[in-house]
Amino acid sequence: MMNKLRRIFTSFFPMSRRPIRWRDTWPLFVFLIVFGVACFGLEYGHYLMFARPLMLGLIVFAPWIWWMHVTGYAGLPRGRATVALLTRLTLLGLLSMVLAEPRSVKTMDVMSIVFALDVSDSIYSPDDALNYVVQTVQNQRPKGKSDQAGLIIFGKTPACELSPSMSFPFEAFNSQVDRGATNIEQTLSYAGALLPEDYQGKVVLISDGVQTEGNLSRILDDLKGRGVVVDVLPIDYSYSNEVWLERLDLPQGVKLGETYEAGMLVKSLNDGKGKLVLRENGNVIAEQEVEYKEGTNRYTVPITLRTAGYYEYTASIEVPKAQDSLPQNNTVLNYVFVEGEGKVLLVTDGSGDRRDWELLEKAIRDGERAVERIDGVDMPRDATSLMPYDCIIFVNVPHDEFDVQQLQAVRDAVYNLGAGFVMVGGANSFGPGGYHRTVIEEILPVTMDVSQKKVLPKGALAIILHSCEFPEGNTWGKRITKQAIKVLGAQDEVGVLAYTETGEKWLFEPTPAANYEQLVPIINGATIGDMPSFQNTMQIGLKGLLKSDAATRHMIILSDGDPQPPTPALIKDFIDNKISVSMVAIFPHGGLEISKMQSVAEVTGGRYYFPEDPNQLPAIFIKESKTLKRSMLQNKVFTPEVAFPSPILKGIDGLPELKGYVITTAKGDLAMTILTAPPDAEDADSQDPILSVWQHGLGKTAAFTSDFSTNWGEHWQKWDHFQPFVKQLLTDVSRVKKDGHLRMSTHTSGGDAVIVVEDFHPEEGFLQVTAKLAGPNEKSEIVTLKQVAPRRYQATVPLWGHGRYHAIGQGTAGERKDVAFGGFIVPYSPEYLRFRSNRQTLQEVADRTNGRVLSGDPEKDDIYRHGRAAKRSTKPIFDWFLIALAILVPLDVAMRRIQLDLGAIKAALGFGRRTASTATMGALLQAKESATAALKSRREERPLPPPTAGTVLPRPSQKPATPPNAGSPKPPDAPAETSDRPAVSTTERLLAMKRKRDEEK
What we know:
Structural class: alpha/beta
Shape: elongated
Oligomer: single chain
């Protein structure tokens, strides 16, 4: 056993061929000392850190490497052998460091602070908190440091006003957030994401601590794990006097001529007096002096409905200011819809030509339908107001006649309430009217994207933005820029210029508008500065527009008029190249600013605008963008062709000529194209739609791309089948009334919506009832109603904001399908039901992130210096160690295998005469001669036995081998050769001699 262990040990640590002296160990001790000092010094000095320090223990193999070196026979000179040993030990050290995962350590004494300011509706005025932020950054930031400061504002969602940087150029809020809720969790997560990883991060949360959405637990642990401290500055308030209206209850099922009660729920923190006012469609129908008690009070007012239609009721309570703190929660709304004869809503352009719609209105009336005509600006702003109309018709009315809410109401009325919609063409409809990428294009069976039409010339638009000195000025500039791009066709090009920190430059050069999704982040992230001169920016814009191959080029400039005017030579270049410039003066200082902007617009063929309200800006930019869309108008005489049979054409044979239409593209197979224009000679496979229909949600929509006026539809006005065509078109598209057996009632309870559906079918049975609740922020939710009583189903849905909600319920059982509609209005934000701040939440935030509760005095709080510590960050650098390993491996081989001739190297470098070096060859020859002599001497002492009969003789072609001891007498002790003795080969005799010498030794 001991012999076996000894053999195993000697296989790893063989016996040395020469004596080992203490001086032979110095390379090992020097390496171990240097390696240990290096690792400890780098780690302790925070230059490096090792993620897996235990792997440095591989250095224990260093003694084995040293032993294998000193016991082996490398045949190297002593100095070279020492260098080779140190190289191999260094390889081992680098390998252990690589496996220990080294990371470089970077130490930065920089603090980055993000101020998170609560601007939700529960914060009555954030001005004091904003002053605290500005004074802290301007007066308390240490000099000589590169500390950063940023600002975000938040309500339901956060928005970044200023990213963390050394400068803090705050002027006014440029971001828009939903102030109807407070989400501290999302805000802290967003603030933490803005903080640079290399710097010490701190968040200063300025809030009342009233959180209506989110959960703080997870994000606080994440911030603490990252070392981010959250200091809190409470905004304290407590309202002891408050009166509010909680809801207005109206009857659900109403019959004309009968009297009902409107119930108003008043709540108060104290007893008091006030006046209740009830309005119907804006008109006062009841006033009542009331004395309310602390808690809940209910009052009723009788109402009578005498005609069918939509009735919106507004209840408000008027009390002295001393008894009330928040007037925003003193008004509630609700509505009643009495179903009657379905009407058609005809929407026209108030400044347009009456001939666009006069004969169409007459044809609708002749078809025995009630019709109501309104201008676009008078459109209702909620879908429930459109419930009395079975169909809505847009007749050559441009997009800029409406606001976003009005168009969204049309979309919701079609998709959710089943109303029909028809758009009639003209120069202000479809693409030329600015409906590209809008909710109206979403509901139509055609798209305004006509990029495949080769005949359309391309347009190019350049927009120049100047820092606007009014609240949220830059935000307005970005918003209207995006809306202007939406209007353009996919093939049109658009570029945006602005004055930034680095001067005048393109945010992006003229780019196809089809890349809208990629352009939006660039616009949102732009920093727009105060432009000193129009000259440079307009010059850059001119060069960019001239590079485009567009047929039409246009420029829009938004400014307050402060920049210096362009030179006459530059204006002449615009005129010579037929590039028009429109100027939009927003809050100019008067005098020369207005005149110079107006003159530039006039001489270049553009338009000048001087809006008094920023809300007019989107319409202006959309109108300007539409100047590039006129190419979509096709003025040619043609006879429409029937592409698909439809009930709309029932009993109609032959169609009259049209004189033009708007180019659109049908939305694939989902749209039914009934009439088309004849194909062009250049593109026989493409036929533009004239009349298309499709189903969208619960409603049906149609697009008639020509018109019914004297412009394009002159022959249709005189056509005998014009009135039947209009009647059948509206019959096909309009909402179909069905006598259902379901009744829906909806109301709010705290922060939830309660949906109740009752079944009045003659035969009782179980229904599968679902409801879709759609509300603010284009959000909707589908819920399943549970049966809570016979024929009664109910569900509760959390509310997500204030505004108008409408619900659609559907009950199914076998082949039976019934639909019911309902809705309600949340009149004000739940934030106005918070009457005191919540310090407990803020204290929890500070405690769990090692932060503080601030006093509100910038000098006492000393945010920048308190808790300041250098931040160390690391990054992996094992690749550098791998490079060092890759270099040392061939060096280690070279040290042991390559002999350098120093004389030849010196001669090659010119330091000596080039001579053939024979030192190495001479030493080799001398060693060879010594080895030959020693071998000859041994053979003479122990001659080989003579060959026997079994010896292999050389072939004839070979020279016979002469034994070294030929002719010498036979040793006396040599065994006699006998014929019966087995033949022994020369190899066997040599092996036997070797074994004998080894034994003697």
